[in-house]
Predict the 3D structure of the following.
Amino acid sequence: MNVVVGITGGIAAYKAVGVVRALVLAGHDVHVVPTEGALRFVGRPTLEAISRNPVHTDLYEGVSEVRHVAIGQAADLIVIAPATANSIAKLATGLADDLLGNTVLASEAPLVIAPAMHTEMWRHPATQANIDTLLARGVTVVGPAVGQLTGADSGPGRMEEPEAIVRAALAVVGETDAPSGTGAGVARSHDLAGRRIVVSAGGTREPLDPVRFLGNRSSGKQGVAIAEAARARGASVTLVAANLEIAEPTGCAVRQVSTALELRDAIREAAVGADVVVMAAAVADYRPAAVSEAKLKKTPGDAGLTLELVRNPDILAELGHAPHDGTVLVGFAAETEPDDVRLVELGREKRAAKGADLIVVNRVGWHEGFAGDDNRATVVGEDGAVVTELHGTKVSVAHGILDVVVSVLTDRSSTEREPTAGRPARTTDEESDPR
Ligand code: CTP
């Protein structure tokens, strides 16, 4: 296959060498088209040596061969990695002021881009609007991943790893399996356009007094990744955010909450008429029976303190057992179980007990599952069967979960299921037992 690798001028350009190399090793004829900016980060000799082909950047070189048209027309696939905010803006408007821009316009080959930039630039409404334009045009967007950026900052914006980009790109032309599961976060199209999705993220805090709370280690990264991925796929997203440790995503309606009861109120309100509810938040199962108005003081000579806790409502179970009309309900099961088979079994039991349609099972522990940028999860479906196993960045896991959600939504709309006995049309004012 003839693959054009476009490289634009960002620090991640050095990683593009890995993309070129992986494509060459996979047996493809690779033609690299770097922008002038890219050549400030990675040298032409390196790109020629790795690609085993001459590298051109200048539109006005080789005019007699009409090079920009020739490269574009010959391409079976174009991969642009990294794609800077500037290059994304140019692609969205169809600018052709360099060889790469011309090559893209002169080609009918599938286009795959791997954005890389600082978080603020990625989240800027201009960049997001450009990404929306490209997605609507059928461009495949791989990543960006969430993680350490060039400076001290960290967040969404890091280019996906070369192997993940290549795997996603080859999947677009049917050369490998769909990348959901192991590769990058791939937004393929606006397959959630017109859908309303509610996502809870973070961890609740249950106050003991004005200065203390009972909380948990959830950072909110996986839930925020789901909200962002759903938005990228065209959904209108409400994020119910409980004490996030990371920045809120742009383009989503955000409801800030802190306690389980606040989260419950926000979810109940947002869930009315939603197509999908994803309960990714870690919700405290108990709260202090009483919250002291003043800071709790030590009693001189006491040996310890006993707290009285009362049960919080199980929000997911309430939604699952309340009448609802076709809303796809996705829960998470965070388990410390070391045995893989038993882990999935626990998820299966949780799904059934809570009446969720899908449950995303993931192992948590002292060193697993919380603040990290990667995740590993198993999605258990409506009949209790494992639908997919996902591992990779939290963004890629988010897309993998949404792939399953999209297929459930598609099945439901194709069968136009009547609300079942357990699921008549949703009512908003119905109270149900907390457990
Ligand atoms: N959940 C909820 N309300 C609660 C507790 C959990 O809605 N009070 C939701 C979580 O958002 C998640 C799912 O239920 O989607 C499972 O949460 P998890 O913490 O794994 O399980 P628990 O139900 O708390 O059960 P246990 O702690 O006994 O494992």
Observations:
- The longest strand covers residues 328-335.
- Residues 98 and 109 are 18 Å apart (CA to CA).
- The two ends are 57 Å apart (CA to CA).
